[in-house]
Write a structure and sequence with these properties.
By secondary structure, the chain is an alpha+beta fold. It has one domain. Helix content is 42%, strand content 15%. The strands form two sheets. The chain has a two-stranded antiparallel ribbon. Strands 3-4 form a two-stranded antiparallel sheet. Strand 1 (4-5) and strand 2 form a beta hairpin.
């Protein structure tokens, strides 16, 4: 699957790495499973000037709209889960 963002093609190798490292199994907005009743996840690339691109995975397009209203809230939730998983991995 190719991910697009505002008519920009995102390199497939970057997308695959980000998917593999993505810390959530559910939508960061709705908390629905990413592979649930709505079909497969929707991959979205969030761009912020001066910061690295971020892959954010959603259960549906409606959640992208909610994300755009307050992206920092949801990015912080993703980062918190990533830190928790990283901490759990280092304890083993």
């Amino acid at each position: 699957m190719t991910v697009f963002r505002k008519n920009e093609r995102i390199p497939a190798d970057w997308v695959e790495k980000e998917r593999a490292d993505y810390p959530l199994d559910s939508c960061v907005v709705s908390e629905d499973k990413l592979k649930g009743d709505m079909g497969g996840p929707i991959d979205y690339v969030y761009k912020q000037e001066g910061k690295p691109d971020r892959l954010v995975r959603f259960c549906c397009k409606d959640c992208i709209k909610d994300f755009k209203k307050n992206p920092n809230k949801y990015l912080n939730a993703i980062d918190a889960e990533a830190a928790k998983r990283k901490g759990a991995a280092t304890q083993h």
